[in-house]
Specification:
four-stranded antiparallel sheet, 235 residues, 35% helix, alpha/beta, 8 helices, Rossmann fold
Length: 235
């Protein structure tokens, strides 16, 4: 579905992506890991066409994405921070999204799943961070997209909402979707991921199964395995 070749991106003199080569063909959950500033969000925004690389190419379903936009209709994206119009009511935002991108199928189910009914008439500027994130999640999963990209989806969620989000992600995987996730929550990664990509300073240091990384680093859990890579890199 996605083929990334020799991807480079600089912001000023800072190299953020340094020759990345990745292929996301398999259906399932692919988690992109790395410390802050490693290039995870820049990689995602490059796939979405929100960041233009200095060098390299990205193909989506066999076609170059540079200068294109139609392919985004096949992607559902949850940004790390959602900037909503503060004076809109929640229900007005949902209606606006439906007007911009017709074809929503799961809106009522998702509103119920995340218990947002009491907030539909409230203005977005008056919501707590956790409730705003639930609104963000509903918008992301409203559409039946073959590719779902989630950038730090657990931010601000209470334990019940987190459980429901995990169930939702697994359900989408079982429908044959490709799901890309960035997160710092290692327990979530171990629970749901089929494949992990660890990025450090704009380069890929590991790509594969969690068990393979544990075996390679001789560690018993993912958090210790990641720490082992960091210690060896900066030793």
């Amino acid at each position: 579905m996605i083929v990334i070749k020799d991807l480079h991106k600089k912001f000023g003199k800072v190299t953020v992506l340094d020759g990345l080569n990745l292929t996301f063909e398999d259906k399932g959950i692919h988690t992109i890991l790395g410390p802050n500033g490693s290039g995870k969000t820049t990689l995602i925004k490059s796939i979405l066409g929100m960041v233009i690389p200095n060098q390299g190419s990205i193909e989506f379903n066999g076609k170059q994405i540079l200068g294109e936009w139609e392919y985004r209709n096949q992607i559902s994206y949850l940004p790390q921070i959602a900037y909503f119009p503060q004076n809109l009511k929640v229900k007005e935002l949902f209606q606006m999204i439906n007007d911009l991108r017709p074809g929503s199928k799961n809106e009522a189910k998702l509103i119920s799943l995340f218990q947002l009914e009491p907030y539909l008439d409230k203005k977005l500027g008056n919501l707590s961070g956790g409730t705003a994130q639930k609104v963000n999640i509903v918008i992301t999963f409203m559409f039946d997209s073959p590719l779902i990209i989630l950038d730090e989806p657990t931010v601000g969620l209470d334990p019940v909402a987190l459980i429901r989000l995990k169930q939702l992600i697994i359900e989408e995987k079982e429908k044959g979707k490709t799901i890309l996730i960035t997160t710092h929550i290692m327990s979530l990664v171990e629970e749901i991921s089929d494949n992990i990509i660890f990025i450090l300073e704009g380069k890929i240091y590991f790509e594969g199964k969690i068990d393979s990384l544990k075996e390679q680093t001789k560690q018993s859990n993912l958090e210790k395995a990641i720490a082992n890579i960091l210690e060896e890199t900066y030793a």
